[in-house]
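Database export, one record per block. Field names are fixed; values are copied verbatim from the stored entry.
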Amino acid sequence: MSINYRRLLKEDLDKPCQDLALYLLGKVLVRKLDHNTILKGRIVETECYLGGEDKASHSFNGRRTEANEPMYMPIGTCYVYMTYGMYYCFNISSKEPGAAVLLRALEPLEGMEVMEKFRVQKTKSNNTKSLKIAKLCDGPSKLCIAFDIKKENVNKINLTDLKNDSLWLEDDPFYDDFKVIHSARIGINRAEEWNTKPLRFYILNNESVSKRNKTAERQFEENQFD
């Protein structure tokens, strides 16, 4: 049975990029497809891209193009871009112009059969046994495939616009007892000092996280006893 929580509004997302990346953990991404099919997934991993001095950001040093325009649009705007010429990544604009939060992983909550169907179609494989529920959305491109998020159907949508009934965020007031790991972002190899900055955040011990950082987890545990 589907549970509808409070939809997040502009004032909920009105935060600096790093604060927003942390705030989104535990929140629920909701996708409404044709025929009123509903998909839901809990956000369990995020990365923030700060713009400005952040050399890993598409808007580094104020760079502004037609492609990255959503990063400069109002809070809660969807920024979808293609990576490796074949996969999409999904971001949400934050308070600062040119800054956005990348959603890296979701814990599937509703509509898993449909998510699995999308994933299988993309891989052109009939082997569904290897697609465990927890792993349907354990990566930025995987979650886009599972939720049918593409540049042509999601880019520039504002998640806080109540007229938009295809994609939005919900609060889950009962999901707040979790620990967060701070670690370096993934796949950032040519941004010099920004390669190692702790701008990736994930929920400790959640099976849907794309990649654990055991060193960061060990440091977190040690700090708990200091």
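Remark 1: The CA atoms of residues 41 and 158 lie 18 Å apart.
Remark 2: The chain has one domain: 10-224.
End of record.
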